[in-house]
Design goal:
The complex is a heterodimer of chains A (about 300) and B (about 350). Chain A is an alpha/beta fold and about 300 residues long. Chain A has 16 helices and eight strands. Chain A starts with a strand and ends with a helix. The longest helix of chain B is centred in the C-terminal third of the chain and has 16 residues, at about 260-275. Chain B is globular, with a radius of gyration of 26 Å. The chains are: A alpha/beta (about 300), B alpha+beta (about 350).
Amino acid sequence: MDERYAYYPGCLASLSQKELDSSTRAITKRLDVELVDMPSVTCCGAGDIHEAKPDYYLHLSARILGQAERSGCKTLLTICNVCTLNLRQANQRLTEDPAELARVNDNLKSAGIAGYDGGIDVRHLLWEVSSGDGFERFKQIAVRSLEGLKVAPFYGCQILRPAKLLGFEDPDRPSSLERLIEACGAEAIDYPAKVKCCGFPIVLAREDVALGELVQPLREATEAGADVMVTPCPLCHLSLDAWQAKAADVAGMEFKLPVLHLAQLLGAAAGVEESQLRFRRHIVRLSDDVKEKLRLPSVVSAD
Amino acid sequence: MAIENAHLTTLQGAYDVELMEVTLRVRRYAGEGSRPETRSYTVEVATTATLLDALDVVKDKLDGTLAYRKSCRMAVCGSCGMRMDGGAVLACKTAMKPFVDAGHVVTVSPMGNLPVIKDLVVDMAPFWQKVHAVKPFLDTGGVDDPETEWRVTPRQSALIAKESLCIMCGCCVSECNSMDSDPDFLGPAALAKAYRFVGDVRDGDARERLKELSGAHGIWDCTRCYFCNQRCPKGVDPRDAIAKLGGEAFREGIARDEGAKHAKVFVQSTYKGGYLRETELVPKTIGPIAAIQQLPFAFQLARAGKVPNPLAPHKAKDNAEVKRLWKLLEAQAPKHRERATRAPEGA
């Protein structure tokens, strides 16, 4: 784990998922890691822009990577699967092809934008905290054991596949979330759909197809007895949380399964204040039972 | 050690072959009306054996009723697609030694998203039906048979190099999450094949192709789960091909589909403010009337603070930089699809 990261929250954590941003800032502070803000970054050009205007996406990403470089950090830290894949994909194209990097830099220069030298690595918070000395550090600060809490890990797609661009762990048998859940003292629930898609990218354009995907992890995790689900991706979170009631209608069963951002689960285990974890910003609220199992300070102090 | 199973190597007697013991758990299914069951088989194979070699020994020595497809044994014919531990592979391209060394017993089952006929054999008819639906042949667009050949540069040929590698094995389709939810989705193999022709500079029918592909069960059904890229044994990267189809449709102005409109909001958002404008996404994707029907849902989100203020959207600093970049790139972007030229008469 680095001492300093160029921090890239992306669109969702800056907008509808602000609780992810505040939880991330809180947990990284406890890990004694400095997050350097890049004030004039834009959307990374994820998914839709990548598809509709591929060259624009590449330049938007290069502009962000260039700002990360000038922050003096060697790694850009992401907290979103989609940002992770898209920035890594752009980074690979730019660093493996000097002619392409030169072309993009020429364009950036013409638009009055400083260029990118190709020296940044893009890594997700999950990878940094679940391996190496980041994991050791986390175990040190995970002082509140979440014993008794059953957590369903949900990876989502674009942190696992394609492995040739991500490559942190086996995309079919990942274990990083389980490792962290266990380090929190909680129990990791196993279920097949944990590596499948939440349906988010098409939930507006093809809601029925998306809900058909979304019901799978919700049903399997519920049937396996999960108290909560945890995900490293704010898009998965939005789908699993905000669209959960619609998925329940499709499935013909109740879920009422609270979905946590990874940083929130880590934060609860590290005793971060509820005011920073901001569970109230979720559609599916925490039941009293789950609050108790999460050892939230408000509940602890009421004991 | 001399080898007794002739099929283990065609070089019998020429080399000593090291053997290893491998156990396979195989999903057996005798057809309609029977119940699938899993059986274990342990056989001795060469240490260089693939999953297909191991299945061949099982069939020869232990159970001749085991059904699976095979032909070329060299990852070219695309016959032996099947699931190993839940993920589609070509049996002939998957070495068994790492699993034996790790003490892991693999489970072999038929590919997903296709009906099972018997054991590991799936019915490929729905697969071919979708491939045929994308007109997998060159259409010069009303031009008569050429008098002279097309001239295609190496750069133009490279535009569809990856998509041309497809061997139609179905591995990409097996775990396609959208097809699991919508069985009518054209899917990664057919769409990669479609791009192989849309991107072919000799093809004159791209616009019509893109219009058809932009409808229901087409390009915008893809949920970007990337299972297809992960599974493809030939490096076709079907998801990337689907993205290229989306880009081509966008350039052709074929944006009547909700998926394309969704993409358009993203592009406009970064131009206007640098960030995605979530509040504009719903009405501009699904239209104002459908958006009004979604209002109760929106209020629920708003109560949790999930709807950013549409009147004061989040703006990135220095967004003028991005506007200049956009204008520059738009001026550079080719306005039309590239076409091949004809060699002059007598050339």
